[in-house]
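Dear colleagues,

As part of the handover before I leave the project, I'm documenting each prediction I ran so the next person doesn't have to rerun anything. This entry is a single chain, and its sequence is reproduced below.
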Amino acid sequence: MYKKLDSRIGKVFMALPAVKGLIIGRDDTSVRGSEYHDPIIVSNGRVRRPTNNAGGIEGGITNGEDIVVTVFVKPIPTMRKGIESVDMKTSSKHHLLT
């Protein structure tokens, strides 16, 4: 299971501290499964997909299409404006400057 290409891609990106998630393929949760699947066609003598919703990986191996990865990175933890917090000893609210 950990030798699948999508697992290996996830391992590389998730090793970066700022990365919090990734999607391989089309980033659209509103699409139904039947609409998401990539049909197989022959184009210019080549077997391919007219869409690349799977992001180039099916069943953990490449399907010959471009590999498409969307990576989600957490925001930089510094701000010009302070943020509210709580003093854990007193339970009083504080405004922190960052």
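The beta strands are 19-24, 41-43, 46-48, 57-58, 61-62, 69-73, 83-86, 93-96. Residues 21 and 72 are 5 Å apart (CA to CA).

All the best with the project,
I.
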